[in-house]
Amino acid sequence: MNRKVRTINLSKLQVRPNAFGKLTTGWIVIYLSVFASFNALFAQNQTPQPRPKLRERISFNANWKFYKYDSSSKADDLIYNVRPIVNNYNGQKPADAQPTTGESIQTIQAILKPWILPTGNDYINDPNKYYQRPAGFPGRDFPLVQADFDDRNWDDVTLPHDWAITGPFYQGNNPEVGGSLGRLPSPGVAWYRKKFYPPAEDAQKLIFLEIEGAMSYAMVWINGKLAGGWPYGYTSWQVNLTPYIKPGQLNQLAIRLDNPNYSSRWYTGGGIYRNVWLIKTNPVHIAPWGTFIKTKKATTSLAKVNLTILIHNESNQEAQITTTTSIYQINATGEKTGKAIARSRPTITLIAAGSKTIAENSVEIKNPRFWGPPPTQTPHCYLAVTTLYQNNIPIDSHETRFGIRTLRYEPDSGLIINNELIKIKGVNLHHDLGALGAAFNRRAAERQLELLREMGCNAIRTAHNPPAPELLELTDRLGFLVMEEAFDMWVMQKNPHDFHLIFPDWYEQDLRAMVRRDRNCPSVIIWSIGNEVGEQYTGEEGAALARRLSAIIKEEDPTRPVTCAMNWAKPDMPLSQVLDVISLNYQGEGIRQDPAFEGTDRIRTTPQYAAFHQKFPQKVILSSETASTFSSRGVYLFPVTEKSSDFIRAEQGGDTQFHHVSAYELYAADFGASPDKVFGALESHPFVAGQFVWSGFDYLGEPTPYYEARSSYCGIFDLAGFKKDRFYLYQAEWRPDLPMVHILPHWNWPERIGLVTPVHVFTSGDEAELFLNGKSLGRKTKRTLEYRLRWDDVRYEPGELKAIAYKKGTKWAEEIIKTTGNPAQLQATVDRGKIRADGKDLAFITLKVTDKAGLTVPTATNLIELDIEGPGEIVATDNGDPTDFTPFPARQRQAFNGLALAIVRAKPGASGRIVVTAHSSGLEKAQIIIETH
Ligand code: GAL
Predict the structure, then answer these.
(1) How far is CA 436 from CA 177, 844, 877, in A?
(2) What's the pLDDT tens digit per position in 254-297?
(3) 31: confidence class by pLDDT, cuts 50, 70, 90
(4) What pLDDT shows up at residue 463?
(5) Is residue 918 a contact partner of residue 932, using CB atoms and an 8 Å limit?
């Protein structure tokens, strides 16, 4: 694909007057000829120091000022590029609607793209394709980028920050931001400003700003000069501040973000929603993410790992650099412990001034501890510390977390890790963290992984974009397998303002940045170049593009396979040929096979596992998306389908009035299938490597089938992280050795006395007997390809339901559920009673409305009010109801089917007792004490 560099008619460049007063039109034509190259800069400043400081990586999350224009139409004109005008936007297209041709834009309006593109040059392989920065400093006279601009009235924010999550929600019909984006104000243009004071000795340094994720079209000004930026909101990137920074003086950063409406099929959030770092290095330094560790040999007695180290010499002299690497054990927080357990021999490399070179180190580790997924293996990680020396003086030191493991893909069985077949029991995760929004929080993500682990899940797919790097620190530490995905679309669009607009200019940089950042993570087992892309439909042309993307990944990492999630491409279609591993979305089970879909213009296909296996006997097949089963936690609708998988309509699993889906866990998207049907398809095709369920947790936006709502229905957990019944269906299958049995629905049906109220039982046993008020309703055995036990003719009477499960004829597990009394009290439990006062750590409090006996009232909707005393704050509340429009920061939250959630954060630096009290009119209150230190 040809990259087009726009030529701009400079005389036409203008900035419109706006809320900040009349702005000059001269910013673009003032050509600052003193734009210093690094070489020139360091020629002047390089006074050799006996012991230069090594690399510093300083958190830059604190003390930002924030301002968002109240509407995009009132924002300034410092745009990356113009966008197509959107008419007749359809925000409720089915997820598997065929993507359409992308738009190209014709304009003479001033755009800043030419100044932004060079930021990605380090991620372009061919130096001839580097973008040249045009002359001038766009926006240099714009008030918001000036140091003396008065931002005292702006909001004080600490990063990570999501400007949209506090709401309020847009409600009603035809809102400005619809259900697909979670009805939250993520679209818009906003600025972040920060002052900082680099010490005078930084004049010797290269200084980079590293942004782990900014949503989106970030552009960075420092001291009034546009330094660069990055459009794709999910990529981590660096911008070099060195030419513009003023050591020994007060410096001003100003970052503009522009998050377009109609740019996503789900909630993006808005803002600098991941960490930001200031990185200082010497002129000769290891490139960002410049190390790559490959395991060459791995036996129980010896592992041999090779490191390639990309070194930049940005000084004006040739440098002779000695490189060594030492290996350390690592603790739970990722820090090295003890002495080095192995060291490489030094290697000596000569690097010409202004150039890059790769140095290699190799290290042998005796009796290595392997990285592998629990429960059968342990996820052991090591830390490699690579040091550069010049004239025997250390000048850079760089840490790389890695693991030793072998990975093999076997077409007839699946994934082999350290010689053990590991079936993928995975889920898809979006990047938002429910009520906390897109702002990454390590504890919130860790809690999700802990809950998934309890279910027996061992893998996640980062749908459909690179995650926060901290998520991968967690998956490395906890031993989850990761399919890391780059894009949801390429050239073909799914929405008028989505990534297709920037794809042609940025796909190479985004892919290389993703792989370089994460290729040392042992948890990453496969790269995905895309999800359900429109290029499935464009035959050879689409396949050629896939080949190009796959080649880029392999240049950065030849050790892992490349895949792409396909919901349409069939075995004989060109895209399928390109991929190392075949990843199917829903096709394995078949799509829209019900006779009701005959004649549809949507995707309709017979089950495809066998066909793919036959066509590609040498390739592994996995399901990158299964199920898309929908449900609202604790909502049961009648009648219940007799099928083992059904699609949702009014009176068929769907409540069109209150916008809920029945939690019998039998109802799926038109193209999806119930978990039962998916299990059946996998069991019948044992060569399939496993599945990633759509989705682990409910997420913000994409509330199919009810776009009146705010969040999705497809999670195994609801948005608050509460288990839906489905949790137990997966647990039964994924943890067969855990004795468990689960009954649904709840047993509070005063209006159904005498009516047929089906009872379903999920168990890891193979049989169960059900009792209603002590009377047996029969013992049932799971038949072949059956995953639940159903008593579909039970007539409701209040009292007690008991299930006794058996495995191989012996009692295995028992559960009793009872009709409860009226709400009488609140009960509170907390996930951890002690949290760190670091401004990040969180406590998750579950609030239950119970009867006098302490049984959760499964239909309770009482309004709960929260008080907090001590050094903590309530960050958000939720209840997992996709239709609840109470803003997340509210301290009052209605219970949804008996439950509500409060998320508490300790004030940074404080220690003491945080006391959270929950009240509700007519109910006994509950209290939780959290210690912070
Ligand atoms: C899939 C899509 C996912 C999500 C899901 C909803 O087709 O890949 O991103 O939209 O449907 O059911």
Answers:
(1) 19, 12, 9
(2) 999 999 999 999 999 999 999 999 999 999 999 999 999 999 99
(3) very low
(4) 98
(5) no
With b meaning 16 or more CB within 10 Å and e meaning fewer, what string describes 13-35?
bebeeeeeeebeeebbeeeeeee
Q: How far is the CA of 4 from the centre of ligand 1 (A)?
A: 32
Report the pocket of ligand 1 as residue ranges, CB < 6 Å: 95-96, 265, 463-464, 531-532, 567, 585, 625, 628, 669, 694, 702, 704, 714
R_g of the chain, CA atoms, integer Å: 28
Would you state the structure tokens that stand for residue 318, as one six-digit string? 């040739």
Encoded tokens for 67: 């301002």
- How far is 553 from 921, CA to CA, in rounded Å? 58
Which residue numbers are catalytic?
532, 625
- pTM exceeds 0.90: yes
Ligand 1 pocket test target in 92, 93, 96, 605 with most atoms within 8 Å of CB: 96
- Calculate the dihedral angle through the C-alpha atoms of 527, 529, 530, 533, rounding to the nearest 10 degrees: -150
pLDDT of residue 400: 97
Instruction: Give me the amino acid identity at 448.
Output: Q
Phi, psi of 181 (to 5 degrees): -100, 15
Distance 102 CA to ligand 1 centre (A): 20
Q: Which of 26-35, 209-218, 505-514 has the lowest mean pLDDT?
A: 26-35
Given a cut of 60, whether residue 25 has pLDDT beyond it is no
Q: Which atom of ligand 1 is nearest to the CA of 714?
A: 12
Of all protein residues, the one whose alpha carbon is nearest to atom 3 of ligand 1 is 95
Question: Which residue has its alpha carbon closest to ligand 1 atom 4?
Answer: 95
